[in-house]
């Protein structure tokens, strides 16, 4: 049984994700137990300044978790936060067990706030514990041969590398891609950024503190400017990504006339661009509304969505595009997202208008082919049948009813289209109330100019058969009230359900 289970995991590695997350959580629990035991066994006398530092590091950890800088790099979403700076300072001033533990309460509270599933939340906290354990172990070994400050600078990469390697291994199982490929594509650059930020930021704080504790405040404007610069780069990268995705979408939908396929591609693009939990496209046409929605991993957040109106070529309202934030990422939309949505909505409106125009052109081409080929052919066939069988009014009524019963239609508009496609003329519903319907016909097959009587029995029979089908094959009765054969402007039929 064990070998069979192993073979099943090899065939589908995604089944191993939950056991692997449980293993990570167990490893984190072991590190937590060792850190707490060591802290209790050593019973360090922590003075007031260090308690204040511990509280400040824990609060800063919470602040960083809720204020991560998100930006796109080569199509990947990167979250940048200076938690390595906090680890640097903790290694400088706190007992080693507290270096592992100081950020754990903040991380656990963040998992509760963002409503992570229990196993995933436990694994996230465990990753922090394992990374802290690797960092502290590296520092303890290096300190035996190197100055403490150098050992700290070399221990920070162990913290970041362990964090990103564990996350890469989870993605590797989910996406069936080798770990080194995931790490190289998604986490190599963030690892370098985090290590550089942690080491440089930690050294800057240490140097200024040695000058005077208040000198650390001099970093505030630089930190603000650095954040604004990264934010500007993030917006620039984001706009470039949007333009790239829109260009890809436009190329993919060139010549597309199927609204369902166009809508699916549009929703997929919007989900990719905005990292959404749900995207919805609404199209209005001739008083009718069509709606498409796409759910993404993480689901839709309870936060109010952002929406943009789709405008047609003449400025008329075509519909709307609605984007819901992702519940899993717990991110909110900013003004830059709304500006980008306006660009996406304009391109979406153009794509939908193009698909509509192509669809109408194809329909017009089909109607033209029908009028040029099918109509004369069907007329000749029916006329030949009528002449050879000497069909009377009753026969034509029955023929019309039989045509309605075999037509591929579910509503009256579809019945009308089917009649026109057979080349027998045009009928249109002008009134429908209860079980009574009124139709008008134009250029009907049986029109006989100069006749003193109504002549369009085939169309009347078809209309009666269509009404019967719509009312579950109930018996119907109909009459032609006006007829072009007698000189009336149009043929008019009244049909009611008995």
Secondary-structure blueprint:
Blueprint: H1 2-11, H2 17-42, H3 48-66, E1 69-73, E2 76-80, H4 83-93, H5 96-101, H6 104-113, H7 118-142, H8 148-175, H9 179-211, H10 219-252, H11 259-274, E3 278-285, E4 288-295, E5 306-311, E6 317-324, H12 335-389, H13 393-406, H14 412-421, E7 426-433, E8 436-442, H15 457-470, E9 476-482, E10 491-497
Antiparallel strand pairs: 1-2, 3-4, 3-6, 5-6, 7-8, 8-10, 9-10
Helix pairs in contact: 2-7, 2-8, 3-4, 3-6, 4-8, 4-9, 6-7, 7-8, 8-9, 10-11, 10-12, 11-12, 13-15
Report on the structure:
The protein is α+β, with helices and mostly antiparallel strands and 498 residues long. It folds into 3 domains: 199 residues, Arp2/3 complex 21 kDa subunit ARPC3 (Orthogonal Bundle); 103 residues, Beta-Lactamase (2-Layer Sandwich); 107 residues, Muramoyl-pentapeptide Carboxypeptidase, domain 2, CATH 3.30.1380. It has 15 helices and 10 strands. The strands form 3 sheets. It has a 4-stranded antiparallel beta sheet with strand order 4-3-6-5, covered by helices on one side. Helix 4 runs antiparallel to helix 8 and helix 8 packs antiparallel against helix 9. It is elongated, with a radius of gyration of 36 Å. About 1% of the residues have low confidence.
In short:
The protein has helices at residues 2-11, 17-42, 48-66, 83-93, 96-101, 104-113, 118-142, 148-175, 179-211, 219-252, 259-274, 335-389, 393-406, 412-421, 457-470; strands spanning 69-73, 76-80, 278-285, 288-295, 306-311, 317-324, 426-433, 436-442, 476-482, 491-497.
């Amino acid at each position: 049984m064990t070998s069979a289970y192993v073979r099943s995991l090899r065939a589908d590695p995604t089944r191993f994700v939950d056991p692997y997350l449980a293993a990570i959580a167990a490893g984190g629990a072991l590190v937590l137990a060792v850190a707490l035991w060591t802290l209790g066994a050593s019973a360090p006398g922590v003075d007031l300044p260090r308690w204040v530092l511990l509280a400040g590091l824990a609060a800063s950890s919470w602040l960083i978790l809720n204020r991560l800088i998100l930006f796109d790099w080569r199509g990947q979403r990167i979250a940048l936060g200076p938690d390595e700076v906090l680890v640097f300072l903790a290694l400088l001033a706190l007992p080693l067990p507290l270096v592992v533990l100081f950020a754990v309460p903040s991380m656990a509270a963040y998992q509760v706030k963002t409503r992570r599933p229990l196993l995933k939340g436990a694994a996230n906290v465990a990753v922090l514990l394992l990374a802290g354990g690797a960092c502290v172990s590296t520092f303890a070994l290096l300190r035996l041969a190197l100055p403490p400050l150098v050992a700290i600078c070399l221990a920070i990469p162990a913290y970041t590398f362990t964090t990103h390697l564990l996350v890469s291994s989870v993605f590797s199982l989910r996406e069936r891609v080798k770990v080194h490929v995931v790490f190289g594509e998604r986490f190599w650059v963030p690892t370098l950024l985090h290590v550089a930020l942690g080491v440089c930021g930690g050294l800057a704080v240490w140097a200024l503190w040695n000058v005077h504790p208040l000198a650390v405040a001099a970093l505030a404007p630089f930190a603000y400017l650095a954040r604004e610069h990264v934010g500007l780069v993030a917006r620039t990268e984001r706009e470039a990504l949007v333009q790239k995705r829109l260009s890809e979408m436009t190329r993919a939908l060139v010549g597309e006339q199927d609204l369902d396929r166009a809508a699916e591609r549009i929703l997929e693009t919007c989900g990719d661009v905005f990292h959404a939990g749900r995207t919805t496209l609404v199209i209005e046409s001739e008083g009718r509304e069509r709606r498409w929605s796409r759910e993404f991993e993480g689901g839709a957040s309870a936060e109010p969505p952002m929406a943009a109106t789709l405008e047609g070529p003449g400025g008329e309202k075509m519909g709307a595009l609605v984007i819901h934030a992702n519940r899993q990422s717990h991110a909110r939309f900013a003004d830059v997202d709304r500006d980008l949505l306006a660009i996406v909505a304009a391109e979406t409106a153009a794509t939908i208008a193009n698909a509509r125009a192509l669809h109408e052109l194809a329909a017009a081409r089909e109607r033209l082919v029908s009028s040029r080929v099918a109509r004369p052919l069907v007329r000749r066939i029916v006329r030949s049948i009528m002449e050879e069988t000497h069909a009377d009014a009753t026969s034509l009524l029955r023929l019309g009813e039989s045509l309605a019963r075999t037509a591929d239609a579910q509503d009256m508009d579809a019945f009308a289209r089917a009649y026109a496609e057979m080349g027998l003329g045009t009928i249109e519903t002008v009134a429908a109330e209860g079980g009574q319907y009124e139709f008008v016909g134009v250029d009907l097959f049986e029109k006989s100019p100069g006749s003193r009587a109504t002549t369009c029995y085939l169309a009347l029979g078809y209309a009666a058969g269509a009404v019967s089908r719509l009312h579950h094959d109930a018996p119907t009765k109909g009459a032609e009230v006006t007829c072009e054969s007698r000189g009336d402007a149009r043929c008019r039929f009244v049909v009611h359900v008995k």
